[in-house]
Task: inverse folding
């Protein structure tokens, strides 16, 4: 890489905006070589998406995260109807390239696994992907098949036995052994990213809050951080503290629910019953702050919509103590029961090298020993001032994912305690000025499932020219498929729960 | 008196059997800190299902409809050779333990065939698991009954030396006195352990199967009856309750060696035992997780080894 090529790159930090016009539009070859080179040096693809710029031209944007330098590198290139696929040389791009093909009809030549992601009609008409071909029928695609007399296929969903979201799972089994699992989603596709175009509007925040209902705080904060970056608004530390507390409460509630559900899936009733109740207690703490158990209406552009007075802070302290006490008993019961450990250990193990290659995020990556945590790598908001230790485990199996969750719960509780005691006396909301024209900003958050990435580009009038959301589930659904290889099909529900991925967060 | 008691055993089973799942569920609820469903929930469920009409998939044949009827009929027949403690069954004959085991085999066969008839991959998977595990559970049950018949034989050898080695279930259970426990406690304990494991496996309880799960990929028994509805499903629920009753009675008969000669007292003790066993099942389900499916055959082989060891001990004159 020559000096002149790298010198005009623009690096961003989390929640920082840059002038689009200063970003060089690279040649396709240089664009791809740069991505490969950066990934070799430890970077990850946080987002890769297309933005139509002319009738036959789409601009490809790549956001690379250099975790060790806490910097984000946005790259772009223009392409026509087709381009050589990045996936064969860079597996973590595979899902993104499928998505680009589905949305804009760009053919990634040589993509080994070109399948629909969300089964929607293309966003624009092209020769290979004409819009008048109609909406594809959801779930209808050529599934991978293992041939053979003794191989049988099991199809699960999209309607499930439990009250969960729709998704289709296709297993190729040999007896009880799973040889291959293919996951087909898209049933929850609402077109949120398209609705965001030429925004922000009155509904934008509500779309963000409901991108994935259990990650309301995570996505809403990522969006508000984005607006603040694009408009150049600074928010008070008190507001940042409140956002941090809400984010960690969301993490505690969901991790608690997951640990309980894991216990339920192996038929261990005590922890299941306790955690189900305690999750409600934690959600109620969020309701104490803002009146909604999932934190709707708490995070607002420019700060937060609700303040905490000292009486409420005392109440939160008390509730937190009670939660910690009960949860410690309930979760330790799990670790002490050998029949539970026998189920957790060795189930659905992932190798760290696969996690690296395929770009998995969140507790899934940390359970394999990778120190990958936005709060630490790309700190934004209050996490620039307070560090939460990264929780890792090494075995990469269901046990590790459960253990990482428990470690994170404990560290989040400590964090919330500290923050409740050290809130500066300030206003919690600042006015937000209009968005500046021709800017790009990237906003990252460590949601409870992992890295949430929002990327926005503004046009000449300061409206969104593109808005890209990457939920951690978008990265991690493939981790579930990968973890199931050579596992027992009866262990699928347990493995699935250990990832607990979002359907609507993926389908957007 | 004897006649009355034996005849009363059958209606007692008919009436009380659906109480057992209620007892188990209430025990689990107690451990979970919940109030739990009503004790009589199984009766309500059966009554509700009987009022509904059944839905049949177009892919199924008469086999699917015959499954629940034949299963229930076979379980009811099995009740007639089942002794409740020292109180003899209405019918007993040499080798009726094999008759009982095969009646339970008939139940399983028709449940499996009805499941396969739906053509659903889930039901096929459940059927394959059920058959695989019963291959190991059945010998464990027969071997432990055989061990008990052998001790019965040894203790009565002085009185009736010409008695055949194989006896009817009623005779076996009539001889399981306090005295038998004192002399061959180890054998009886091993046999009871084997029967207890078979009880858990045959009645789809934890650690073998999870009766409360909604996850069709992990189910064994529940997944095979997913397509049944209305009165058919009521018959399946009732047959399952009666089957649980049979196994509880077989186990309680060993564990409550009250053979005073007063049939009211003897039978009453075993009845109490039956419900205590249901409580025990609930306790097991509350304090342990379910086994990985791969490990279930090891547990069932363990039951077989217990039973075999019991036979070895009794043959060595212990």
Result:
């Amino acid at each position: 890489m020559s000096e002149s090529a790298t010198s005009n790159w623009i690096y961003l930090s989390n929640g920082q905006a840059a002038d689009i016009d200063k970003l060089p539009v690279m040649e396709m070859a240089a664009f791809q070589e740069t991505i490969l080179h950066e990934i070799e040096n430890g970077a990850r693809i946080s987002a890769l998406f297309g933005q139509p710029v002319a009738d036959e031209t789409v601009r490809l944007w790549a956001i690379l995260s250099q975790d060790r330098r806490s910097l984000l590198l946005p790259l772009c290139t223009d392409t026509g109807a087709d381009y050589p696929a990045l996936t064969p040389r860079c597996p973590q791009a595979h899902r993104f390239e499928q998505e680009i093909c589905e949305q804009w009809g760009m053919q990634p030549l040589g993509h080994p696994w070109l399948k629909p992601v969300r089964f929607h009609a293309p966003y624009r008409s092209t020769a290979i992907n004409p819009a008048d071909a109609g909406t594809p029928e959801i779930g209808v695609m050529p599934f991978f098949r293992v041939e053979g007399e003794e191989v049988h296929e099991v199809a699960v969903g999209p309607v499930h036995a439990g009250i969960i979201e729709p998704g289709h799972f296709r297993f190729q089994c040999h007896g009880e052994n799973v040889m291959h699992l293919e996951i087909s989603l898209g049933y929850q596709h609402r077109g949120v990213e398209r609705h965001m175009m030429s925004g922000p509007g009155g509904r934008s925040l509500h779309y963000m809050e409901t991108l994935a209902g259990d990650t309301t705080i995570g996505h809403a904060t990522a969006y508000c951080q984005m607006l603040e970056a694009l408009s150049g608004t600074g928010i008070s530390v008190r507001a940042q503290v409140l956002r941090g507390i809400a984010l960690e409460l969301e993490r505690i509630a969901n991790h608690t629910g997951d640990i309980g559900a894991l216990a339920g899936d192996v038929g261990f009733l005590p922890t299941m019953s306790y955690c189900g109740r305690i999750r409600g207690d934690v959600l109620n703490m969020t309701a104490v702050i803002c009146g909604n158990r999932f934190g709707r209406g708490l995070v607002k552009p420019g700060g937060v919509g609700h303040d905490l007075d000292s009486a409420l802070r005392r109440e939160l302290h008390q509730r937190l103590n009670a939660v910690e006490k009960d949860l410690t008993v309930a979760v330790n019961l799990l670790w002490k029961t050998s029949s539970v450990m026998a189920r957790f250990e060795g189930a659905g193990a992932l190798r760290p090298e696969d996690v690296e290659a395929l770009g998995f995020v969140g507790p899934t990556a940390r359970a394999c020993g990778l120190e990958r945590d936005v709060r630490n790598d790309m700190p934004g908001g209050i996490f620039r001032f307070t560090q939460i230790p990264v929780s890792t485990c090494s075995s990469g199996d269901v046990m590790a994912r459960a253990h990482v969750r428990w470690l994170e719960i404990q560290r989040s509780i400590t964090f919330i305690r500290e923050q409740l005691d050290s809130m500066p006396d300030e206003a919690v909301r600042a006015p937000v000025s209009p968005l500046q024209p021709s800017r790009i900003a990237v906003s990252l958050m460590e949601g409870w499932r992992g890295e949430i990435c929002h990327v926005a580009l503004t046009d000449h009038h300061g409206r969104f020219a593109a808005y890209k959301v990457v939920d951690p589930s978008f990265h991690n659904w493939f981790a579930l498929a990968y973890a199931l290889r050579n596992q027992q099909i009866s262990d699928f529900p347990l493995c699935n729960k250990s990832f607990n991925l979002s359907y609507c967060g993926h389908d957007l | 008196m004897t006649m009355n008691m034996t005849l009363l055993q059958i209606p007692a089973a008919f009436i009380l059997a659906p109480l057992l799942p209620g007892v188990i569920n209430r025990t689990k609820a107690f451990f979970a800190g919940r109030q739990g469903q009503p004790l009589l929930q199984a009766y309500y469920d059966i009554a509700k299902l009987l009022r509904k009409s059944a839905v049949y998939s177009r892919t199924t044949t008469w086999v699917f409809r015959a499954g629940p009827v034949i299963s229930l009929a076979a379980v009811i027949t099995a009740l007639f050779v089942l002794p409740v403690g020292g109180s003899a069954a209405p019918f007993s004959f040499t080798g009726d333990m094999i008759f009982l085991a095969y009646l339970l085999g008939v139940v399983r066969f028709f449940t499996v065939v009805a499941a396969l008839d739906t053509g659903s991959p889930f039901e096929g998977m459940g059927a394959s698991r059920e058959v695989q595990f019963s291959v190991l559970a059945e010998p464990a049950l027969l071997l432990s009954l055989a061990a008990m018949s052998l001790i019965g034989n040894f203790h009565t050898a002085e009185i009736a030396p010409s008695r055949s080695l194989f006896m009817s279930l009623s005779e076996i259970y009539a001889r399981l006195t306090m005295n038998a426990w004192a002399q061959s406690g180890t054998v009886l304990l091993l046999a009871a352990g084997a029967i207890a494991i078979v009880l858990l496996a045959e009645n789809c309880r934890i650690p073998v199967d999870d009766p409360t799960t909604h996850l069709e990929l992990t189910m064994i028994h529940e997944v095979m009856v997913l397509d049944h509805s209305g009165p058919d499903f009521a018959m399946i629920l009732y047959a399952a309750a009666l089957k649980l009753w049979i196994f509880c009675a077989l186990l309680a008969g060993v564990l409550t060696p009250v053979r005073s000669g007063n049939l009211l007292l003897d039978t009453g003790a075993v009845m109490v035992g039956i419900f205590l066993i249901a409580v025990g099942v609930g306790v097991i389900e509350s304090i342990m997780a379910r086994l990985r499916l791969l490990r279930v055959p090891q547990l069932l082989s363990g039951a077989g080894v217990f039973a075999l060891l019991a036979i070895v001990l009794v043959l060595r004159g212990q």
